[in-house]
């Protein structure tokens, strides 16, 4: 059977004791993504990339959205400054970083926020997408995080 969609641990975190994401309830749409290592998100408003140690595989017409957990802004003062992270199918196993998922985080609490390894930081939702008539996209990903915007 061909794998359709899921998560894997990247090589550099193979022996780090990370868990693959899971949904907490039968009707939940999102998979809880956890931090792969301790990190401090500073109060100065700067954006930090939080490593997850994970990569995601999916079908060519699917995308993985990274979305704030409801407790992130309210309880911890953490937000995704890009609102929604977008992981494209061709990000998987890219040569720059093996497709490791990083989460942009910013503190809006006015205080430094400590994230510990294993803390749930975002939820991830697989979604199919449509393309417009006469779409001619033929480019090939050559980089890792943020690479499609570097043209």
Automatic annotation (TrEMBL):
InterPro entries tied to this protein? dUTPase, dUTPase-like, dUTPase-like_sf, dUTPase_trimeric
Q: What is its EC number?
A: 3.6.1.23
Q: Which UniProt keywords apply?
A: Hydrolase, Nucleotide metabolism
List the catalysed reactions: dUTP + H2O = dUMP + diphosphate + H(+)
Q: Name one Pfam family in it.
A: dUTPase
| GO BP of this protein | dUMP biosynthetic process; dUTP catabolic process
Single GO molecular function? magnesium ion binding
Q: Which SUPFAM superfamilies does this chain map to?
A: dUTPase-like
Q: Where is the dUTPase-like domain?
A: 19-148
UniProt-listed PANTHER family: DEOXYURIDINE 5'-TRIPHOSPHATE NUCLEOTIDOHYDROLASE
Family membership, please give it: Belongs to the dUTPase family.
Q: Name it.
A: dUTP diphosphatase
Organism encoding this protein? Oenococcus sicerae
